[in-house]
Write a structure and sequence with these properties.
With 620 residues, this protein is an alpha+beta fold. The radius of gyration is 37 Å and the shape is elongated. The structure holds adenosine-5'-diphosphate (ADP) and magnesium ion. Magnesium ion (MG) binds next to helix 2.
């Protein structure tokens, strides 16, 4: 027997580790099972090299619980250790800069990540155990089995063991504050969380707890759509089926495997729905590692396996590592490739998914310049008529009908239905931009594409296409030779209760709409932008509403209004009609205040009350 002290240059590192890592004590399972898997892999590699003179045992890791003794035992059929190796790898805790460690990682957040980085993985067992034993037999010819034990102080005992099977057992004497680890379901849950895809079978009794050949390690050619979907369901139970996926498989210049799924987003841009799990050689490391996976890609779901990264990656390590940046760029590129490939060769499918994936694409374009460049020609816009067009196709369609580069959009197809109908009657199209992200995306897109495209909300302007210039000069009163337009202008000015509204009289080709509101695109964008921002909103509240009421003199309602205004004793009704027409136009903008709603209802009732009988409102 040998007794001695674990040589680390701090009096007692174990309590430090224990205290710092306490909140994440369950990671001991990841560390011990991955050590076991490493040991098996090493033995297999040695066997391939012809270095193993005895029979190579079947690869497996077994978990056993001995409730009576209060022990959890993790056994592997790996290469084992000699007493000398235990001294070297376990006792002389092999990290050069303990002082660095203590200095740098006082910050609790980072400590968890750093454990394995400093070769302390094995010692994480002391987070749940008051005493740890190693019982091991090396594969080497003539090796003597060894037994090590340590109670969490720096003192250890090393003796010979009677073990006959090559491999290692780690015996954890579970501490009083971690008794839950003696429950089968707790251990199973932890295996499921950290080791579900480890490459060797992890057994409890006769049950295998893991999938040793997860889908991402297999070749895409041997996989069907169904395999991908099943794997998705296994990873993310209870989530609606994904739309499509990307299988990542890179060997050079770095190793990267994985599958990224495009989920059906329930709410626009709710990043909490996404989940990209990071694995390192099939061992779970973390979720949504920002440094590795660009933020906008965390909307996706799936797994990424980067064997080149250390098992325990610290944030600061990731930030400073150039490979990480390249991996991240590569992932972004692959996602863009998948999307542009689909846009080019499977246009119908692409269009079919568009309504689900466009917030993701726009978000990515806002966040990542390269992604923007790759995607900009493959943006689709859904038209009010239900087609999906690229901007070039839209331009083609609107050729000669709007200024080149102008894109008319509807932000609320329901309330803007009258505007949409006007356009449609003239064979014009508006695109629908009714999601939150469009508000940010449109101005950004215009700027990034050098103002080649000018988006105008459907109520920002009236296209000349909609007007009939031949009708605009009708003279209605020979006495003062005033045109109908001039008269209507005055009628609205005199009778409109709302102040500060600009009046413009036009002759629409269509007679269906009595009046429309126009809101200046720039002023409206500014207001949209600051909505919800208290200080800025107070500032823009002072800005004039800046809208124009466009009166359509070809509409029968307006014609009647003109007549009414020339009829004796109808002034009260003229006022009612003017304000009603204004409110009808306002209604297409969406929001009525409570007060406006009240007067609209009262006025509607008043108008109805005057219909019929001798008091007919709209006298012939
Ligand atoms: P790391 O795994 O980062 O090297 P650990 O503290 O987890 O650090 O393990 C230290 C060393 O102990 C390992 O590198 C390995 O040489 C040895 N070791 C740990 N567990 C086993 C095992 N189950 N079988 C064989 N060797 C092991
Ligand atoms: Mg380890």
């Amino acid at each position: 027997m040998e007794a001695g002290h674990i040589s680390i240059h701090a009096e007692n590192i174990l309590p430090i580790i224990k205290r710092w890592l306490y909140s994440e004590k369950e990671i001991f399972i990841r560390e011990l099972v991955s050590n076991a898997a490493d040991a098996i892999l090493k033995l297999q590699k040695l066997a391939l090299l012809g270095e193993v003179k005895r029979e190579v045992p079947e690869a497996e890791i077994t978990l056993a619980i001995d409730k009576e003794k209060g022990q959890v035992i993790i056994t592997d059929t790996g290469l084992g250790m000699t007493a000398d190796e235990i001294k070297k790898y376990i006792n002389q805790v092999a990290f050069s800069g303990l002082h660095d460690f203590l200095d740098k990682y006082k910050d609790k957040d980072d400590t968890q990540q750093v454990i394995g980085h400093f070769g302390l993985g094995f010692y994480s067992s002391f987070m749940v155990a008051s005493k740890v034993e190693i019982d091991t037999l090396s594969y080497q010819e003539g090796a003597v089995a060894a037994h090590w034990s340590c109670d969490g102080s720096t003192a250890f005992e090393l003796t010979e063991s009677k073990r006959t099977a090559v491999g290692t057992s780690i015996i954890l004497h579970i501490a009083d504050d971690s008794k839950e680890m003696l429950e089968e379901h707790t251990l199973k849950d932890l295996i499921h969380r950290y080791c579900a895809f480890i490459r060797y079978p992890v057994k409890m009794g006769s049950e295998v707890l893991n999938d040793t050949r997860p889908l991402w390690t297999r070749s895409p050619t041997e996989l069907s759509d169904q395999d991908y979907q099943e794997f998705f369901r296994k990873l993310f139970p209870g989530t609606p089926d994904p739309l499509f996926w990307i299988h990542l498989n890179v060997d050079y210049p770095f190793n990267l495997k994985g599958v990224l799924y495009f989920p059906k987003l329930k709410h626009e841009l709710d990043a909490s729905q996404g989940e990209v799990k990071l694995y390192c050689n099939q061992v779970y490391v973390a979720d949504n590692t920002k440094e590795l996976i660009p933020e906008f890609l965390t909307l996706l779901k799936g797994v990424i396996d980067c064997p080149d990264l250390p098992l325990n990656v610290s944030r600061s390590y990731l930030q400073s590592d150039p490979t990480v940046r390249r991996i991240s760029e590569h992932i972004t590129k692959k996602v863009a490739d998948k999307l542009t490939g689909m846009a080019k060769t499977e246009r119908e499918t692409y269009a079919k998914f568009w309504d689900d994936i466009h917030p993701f694409i726009k978000f990515g374009m806002l966040r990542d310049h390269k992604f923007f460049e790759r995607m900009q020609d493959h943006l689709l816009f859904k038209t009010a008529g239900g087609e999906h067009l690229t901007l070039e196709q839209y331009k083609e369609k609107m050729l000669g009908k709007v200024e080149d580069g102008t894109v008319i959009y509807a932000s609320d197809p329901t309330s803007q239905v009258a505007y949409l109908r006007l356009l449609q009657d003239e064979g014009m199209e508006a695109v629908i931009a009714d999601t939150m992200i469009d508000q940010h995306f449109i101005p950004y897109f215009e700027m990034q594409t050098g103002r080649k495209w000018k988006f105008k909300r459907i109520d920002a302007d009236i296209s000349a296409q909609l007007l009939d210039s031949s009708k605009s000069q009708i003279v209605v009163d020979a006495n003062d030779s005033a045109t109908a337009a001039e008269k209507l202008d005055k009628i609205f000015r005199d009778n409109l209760d709302k102040t500060g509204v600009k009046i413009r009289v036009e002759s629409f080709k269509s007679d269906k709409v009595p009046a429309m509101l126009l809101v200046d695109e720039n002023v409206r964008r500014m207001k949209d932008m600051v909505r919800g921002n208290g200080a800025m909103a107070a500032y823009t509240a002072g800005l004039p509403d800046d809208y124009t009421l466009v009166v359509n003199q070809t509409s029968p309602a307006i014609k009647n209004l003109l007549k009414l205004s020339q009829t004796f004793n109808r002034l009260e009704e003229v006022k009612l009609v003017v304000n009603q027409i204004h409110d009808l136009a306002w209604l297409q903008q969406g929001d009525f205040s409570a007060q406006m709603m009240q007067s609209f209802i009262d006025r509607s009732a008043a108008i109805l009350g005057r219909l019929g009988g001798s008091d007919t409102l709209l006298a012939q």
